[in-house]
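Progress note, sequence design subtask.
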């Protein structure tokens, strides 16, 4: 079918399964054409066929390994030159298990490449393209471990804290351009990321594990409400507001010409 009343193209990384695949379906239902990016081309092709049939949209599949700089640069160039792209979902990511002292550093380097470097390069390209067009949306998938790093693997938690910080700074940079920015901070979500990372999630209490569909629907609701930071399972948004307010209370005292009295 031909695309009807398209909202533009949504570029979704990590689109072959889990959160990315569900976002793709939800965005298709909202009238977006799709550019689906992942390593598993057969899975992407199968998803694309279903989405075309169900929603009458254009779906393009792009096989890419976003731990490889060459593949990232190709996608970055696509973002910079394809004016039809109106939404970037920076979803591709990987977790890790174990202590930093015992870590496989090659594995952690791939994690940093995917969770930090790739996210940054794609967000930069999208920010340039979207601000020039005066419209667009950048969604970065972070994690609640950005707020509670003591509870999880050090490198993964730090990578997601980076995504949160990047999103907050990027939003400030893009004020007045017409570009919307959102960071999503899911808790434990039922996806394949756990087994792919060698983590046994079976011991996690059921009341802590959200279905991916519910997580994505909450996140899109947060986007519709104009939230910069969306924490899908947080009942009281005032708690996040208080967290942000406490940061601003400290702000005037974070850089002074004299050390605090307690250090003298």
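Output:
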């Amino acid at each position: 079918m031909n695309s009807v009343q398209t909202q533009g193209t949504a570029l979704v990384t990590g689109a072959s399964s889990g959160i990315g695949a569900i976002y793709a379906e939800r965005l298709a239902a909202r009238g977006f054409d799709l550019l689906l990016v992942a390593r598993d081309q057969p899975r992407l092709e199968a998803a694309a066929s279903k989405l075309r049939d169900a929603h009458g949209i254009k779906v393009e599949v792009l096989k890419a390994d976003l731990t490889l700089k060459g593949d990232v640069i190709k996608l970055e160039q696509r973002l910079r030159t394809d004016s039809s792209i109106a939404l970037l979902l920076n979803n591709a990511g990987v977790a890790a298990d174990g202590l930093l002292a015992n870590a496989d550093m090659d594995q952690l380097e791939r994690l940093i490449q995917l969770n930090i470097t790739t996210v940054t390069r794609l967000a930069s390209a999208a920010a340039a393209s979207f601000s020039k067009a005066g419209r667009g949306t950048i969604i970065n998938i972070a994690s609640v471990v950005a707020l509670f790093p003591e509870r999880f693997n050090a490198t993964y938690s730090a990578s997601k804290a980076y995504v949160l910080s990047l999103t907050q700074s990027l939003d400030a940079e893009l004020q007045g351009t017409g570009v919307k920015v959102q960071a999503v901070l899911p808790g434990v979500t039922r996806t394949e990321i756990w087994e792919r990372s060698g983590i046994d999630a079976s011991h996690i209490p059921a009341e802590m594990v959200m279905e991916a569909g519910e997580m994505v629907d909450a996140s899109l609701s947060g986007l519709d409400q104009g939230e910069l930071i969306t924490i899908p399972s947080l009942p009281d948004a005032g708690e996040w507001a208080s967290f942000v307010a406490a940061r601003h209370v400290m702000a005037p005292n974070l850089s002074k010409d004299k050390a605090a009295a307690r250090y003298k």
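The first helix runs from residue 18 to 29. Work on this subtask will continue into the next period as scheduled.
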